[in-house]
């Protein structure tokens, strides 16, 4: 994007340069008396040693312009720093050959290879999309994970976040989804764009090794802004990743799965910058525009009419203190179409993935399952599993008060159903890839432990086809 070998005089022909700045504060640079500059305009900052650093305009007014410097302002001084406004936003050279590569948060190659020669140069902030141009998501994505496919179905073009907590295996689940995701009935795999913000080196290495071992690394582009990288870079990481995803989906016609972790680190960086700017804080110190900023990222997903490709998002966030009412999960839940919620107690009992059955949901599930998409009995089966498992939770709470020996025979049957459901339906291997048919059959096997008169949400035909067949087989055994 910027050729450092070009002499300063040549660069001056294409932009205005100012010598001396007013103030430095963390990664922010303040400069007065400039010409009219644009919001998010790209900036070159040159310190007294001649080192060039990139930044972008964060705020502008008649009196002062605030620039966020991606690599920080360490080593800069007020009178000798030169600032040059480029008159254009931060752009990224995008090409299909970026799959199989590793980049930093700004889209620069960090895998030892050369910088990719882009087919196009796109604004990382994205382009506005007319809502009427969107296609309604309805294609079922088979992840091979029963608790998602059966009860919280992922749909092509959907944004379905994972609400997790520190120490829970959300990264393992995300890698498994990336390896196994398929569109049922179509011979198509997903290209994966992975964005990591503020993660540790071992987490980044886990993803790279996981993709290498499964042979899908050539189909993955990784954007890594690690924990020891400048925190300001985390704000550009998801935008760079989504820019490549948009090119792959709408110019190359690929189905793209975007995984972003950890959105909590992204929001922390946003709060840090907001504090440095002296903005009035909102809930828990986060800026008042946290909702619109997250929506700006999450809404860069979906399908467009007339385009073959699609973007499906799986953002991952760790809930501070496992609090689902915290502003980050709270606002994310409003913007996205559901959530997959992890439960620490299930993880403690060795259940993987520890997905909590009741607070998890997929709002688009109803449009992507059923006859002709998964199986005719899928909607009723999922509803019955939710209802039965909800009753299991009530029975367990009752047993903790009065003791299991005081429960009724029917309550004991529900307890047995709950154990079977968690052990054989929810829990599975970290490399186990189940078909949707196997997932639904496991659901019926769990329900067969309950009396048929308790199953009010399935039809008599479904009971005859699935429930009684399993019950008869168990009786013969």
Topology:
Layout lengths: L7 H5 L3 E4 L3 E3 L2 E5 L8 E6 L5 E9 L3 E6 L12 E8 L1 E4 L7 E3 L15 E4 L10 E2 L4 E3 L3 H6 L2 E2 L6 E3 L5 H11 L1 E2 L7 E9 L1 H14 L5 E7 L10 H14 L4 E7 L1 H14 L13 H9 L4 E2 L5 E9 L8 H9 L2 E4 L2 H5 L12 E2 L15 H25 L6 H18 L9 H12 L12 H17 L1
Parallel strand pairs: 9-17, 14-20, 14-21, 16-17, 16-18, 18-20
Antiparallel strand pairs: 1-7, 2-3, 3-6, 4-5, 4-7, 5-6, 8-10, 11-19, 12-13, 12-15, 21-22
Helix pairs in contact: 3-4, 7-8, 10-11, 10-12, 11-12, 12-13
Compact overview of the structure:
The protein is built from 13 helices and 22 strands. It is an alpha/beta fold and 477 residues long. It has three domains: 8-88, Thrombin, subunit H (Beta Barrel), CATH 2.40.10; 92-367, Rossmann fold (3-Layer(aba) Sandwich); 377-466, no CATH class.
Tally of separate helices: 13
Number of strands: 22
Q: What is the topology, as strand order, of the major beta sheet? A: 9-17-16-18-20-14-21-22
Task: Return the domain count.
Answer: 3
Biggest sheet overview: 8 strands, mixed
Which class of the largest domain in CATH terms? Alpha Beta
CATH topology of the largest domain: Rossmann fold
CATH architect. name of the largest domain: 3-Layer(aba) Sandwich
Fraction in beta strands: 15-25%
Distance between the termini: 69 Å
Q: Can you give the helix content as a percent range?
A: 25-40%
The average pLDDT is: 89
Low-confidence stretches: 8-13
General form: elongated
Helix and strand content put the structural class at: alpha/beta
Compute the CA-based radius of gyration: 26 Å
């Amino acid at each position: 994007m910027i050729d450092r070998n070009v002499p300063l005089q040549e660069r001056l022909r294409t932009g205005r340069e100012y010598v001396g700045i007013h103030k430095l504060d963390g990664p922010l640079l303040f400069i007065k008396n400039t010409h009219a500059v644009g919001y998010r305009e790209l900036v070159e900052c040159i310190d007294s040693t001649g080192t060039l650093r990139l930044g972008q305009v964060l705020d502008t007014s008649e009196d002062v312009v605030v620039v966020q410097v991606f690599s920080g302002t360490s080593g800069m001084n007020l009178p000798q720093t030169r600032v040059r406004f480029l008159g254009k936003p931060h752009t990224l050279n995008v090409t299909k050959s970026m799959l199989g590569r590793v980049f930093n948060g700004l889209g620069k190659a960090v895998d030892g290879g050369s910088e990719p020669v882009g087919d196009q140069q796109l604004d990382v902030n994205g382009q506005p999309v007319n809502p009427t141009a969107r296609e309604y998501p309805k294609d079922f994505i088979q992840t091979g994970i029963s608790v998602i496919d059966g009860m919280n179905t992922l749909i092509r073009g959907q944004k379905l976040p994972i609400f997790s907590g520190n120490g829970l295996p959300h990264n393992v689940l995300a890698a498994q989804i990336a390896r196994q995701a398929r569109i049922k009935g179509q011979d198509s795999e997903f290209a994966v764009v992975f964005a990591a913000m503020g993660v540790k080196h071992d987490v980044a290495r886990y993803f790279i090794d996981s993709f290498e071992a499964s042979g899908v690394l050539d189909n993955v582009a990784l954007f890594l802004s690690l924990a020891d990288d400048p925190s300001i870079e985390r704000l550009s990481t998801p935008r760079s990743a989504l820019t490549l995803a948009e090119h792959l989906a709408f110019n190359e016609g690929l189905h793209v799965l975007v995984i972003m972790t950890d959105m909590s680190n992204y929001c922390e960086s946003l709060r840090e910058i907001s504090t440095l700017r002296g903005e009035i804080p909102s809930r828990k110190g986060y800026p008042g525009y946290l909702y619109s900023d997250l929506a700006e990222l999450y809404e860069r997903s979906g399908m467009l009419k007339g385009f073959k490709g699609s973007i499906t998002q799986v953002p991952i966030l760790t809930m501070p203190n496992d609090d689902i009412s915290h502003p980050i999960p709270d606002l994310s839940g409003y913007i996205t179409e559901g959530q997959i919620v992890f439960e620490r107690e299930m993880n403690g009992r060795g259940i993987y993935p520890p997905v909590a059955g009741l607070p998890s949901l997929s709002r688009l599930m109803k449009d992507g399952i059923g006859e002709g998409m998964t199986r005719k009995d899928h909607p009723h089966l999922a509803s019955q599993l939710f209802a039965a498992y909800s009753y299991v939770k009530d029975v367990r709470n009752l047993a903790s008060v009065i003791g299991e020996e005081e429960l009724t025979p029917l309550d004991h049957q529900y307890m047995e159903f709950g154990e079977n459901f968690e052990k054989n339906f929810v829990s599975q291997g970290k490399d186990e890839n189940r078909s949707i048919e196997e997932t639904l059959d496991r659901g019926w096997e769990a329900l067969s432990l309950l009396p048929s008169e308790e199953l009010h949400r399935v039809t008599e035909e479904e009971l005859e086809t699935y429930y009684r067949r399993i019950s008869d087989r168990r009786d013969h055994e």
